Structure formats: C-alpha cells, structure tokens
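User: Predict the complex with FE2/S2 (inorganic) cluster.
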Amino acid sequence: MSNLVRACSVDELEEEEVLRFDYDDRTFAIYHGPDGKFYATDGFCTHEKAHLGDGIVDEFEVECPLHFGAFDYRTGDPTVAPACIKLKTYPVTVTDGAVFVDTAV
Ligand code: FES
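Assistant: Here is the predicted structure with FE2/S2 (inorganic) cluster placed in the model:
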C-alpha cells in the first residue's frame, strides 16, 4: 500500500538542488538530479541528526552540512566518511507538475 504525498512543485527545485520536506513528524530530502529525475531520501543524515536538505548537491551525491559525509541519493549508499550507514530512499512520482513521495515504504 502506498501513501503518495505532494512534496513540492517541479518548478520549486532546479536540477542539482535539494529541498527539505516535512510530513507527519518526519523529514525527507527531495532531489532534482542532473538526469532530470526527482529522488527522495530520509531528511536526516545517518551519521548524526543533520538536515540533508541543507546539504550541497553535486551530480548524484549530497554532502552533509555537518561533517561533510556524503551519500548517493539514488541508492542511499554512503560515499564519503564519516557517513557509513545507508540512507533510506523513497519512490517518487511526478504528476501534473508536482513531485509526490511514497512515504509508506
Ligand atoms: Fe552528517 Fe556527520 S551528521 S556526516
């Protein structure tokens, strides 16, 4: 069962940008990749509790603003220490100019 929630409009997020999205006491990070696709992960870094929505995006990688660990936001895999625990990812759907995240997975 899915729970599609509108995170933002397509126009709110340029390519290679990240946006914080809060929903139901949870925080997500929404990304617009250089491939034109949208992606979503948990909003908090798995190292400590820093908002990845405040991070720097380069290609398909997000750099955490606190200790500069990094993740591939397509897979959630950590790519730069001290990040070492995988980040949860979520399916994203684009409909009628809006980005929807499936928060049920
Ligand atoms: Fe993100 Fe430390 S909190 S790398």
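Residues 45, 47-48, 50, 64, 66-67, 69, 82-83 surround FE2/S2 (inorganic) cluster (CB under 6 Å).
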